[in-house]
Amino acid sequence: MSQPAEFLPTVQALVQCYQAFEAYSAAHIRTLGLTPPQFDIIATLGNTSGMTATELGEKTLITKGTLTGVVDRLVDRGWVERAAHDSDRRCQIIRLTQSGEALFARVFPAHLAHLAACFSGTGAAGHKRWQTALRGLEQVFRKGAA
User: Fold this and answer.
1) Is the domain defined by 4-115 classed in CATH 3.40.50.12710?
2) 62 near 94, Cβ under 8 Å?
3) Which tens digits make up the pLDDT trace of 41-98?
């Protein structure tokens, strides 16, 4: 087993990287008139026919308890709606309304452009290196959880 001195700096670097990303991303999302969880749901539902709350929870970084409240607020704003599931009457499909689709079409490309600005000086080799390192670290955690 690794000594704490060996892996703690890796954990710290991972946490600090995520915190820096979250701060950069969230600041821009707020300028678009959304909270990060609202953006996460709008972005996840964009270009789909909708999904159940369970599916939405699995594809976002939002906990189940928070998800219901965020979806409720998005429903109140007219951006998402809950519809009956075709084959399972016990669950509902959450999907973007026309207004939500228009919002997605406006905010998603704007946020991608904002994120792209951070990566403008990085070439393909740099991206490949980061992806390989992050996927390797992901596998370490997946194996540990198994």
Assistant:
1) no
2) no
3) 999 999 999 999 899 999 998 888 899 999 999 999 999 999 987 777 778 999 999 9
Q: Decide: 64 and 49 in contact? Cβ < 8 Å.
A: no
> Directed axis angle between helix 36-45 and helix 64-76, to 10°?
80
Tokens of 67: 């998800």
Instruction: Record the pTM.
Output: 0.86
Domain residue spans in the chain? 4-115
- CA–CA separation, 21 and 43 (whole Å): 17
Separation of alpha carbons 1 and 64, rounded Å: 34
Q: Which residues of 67-94 are buried (b: 16+ CB within 10 A; e: fewer)?
A: beebbeebeeeebbbeeeeeeeeeebbb
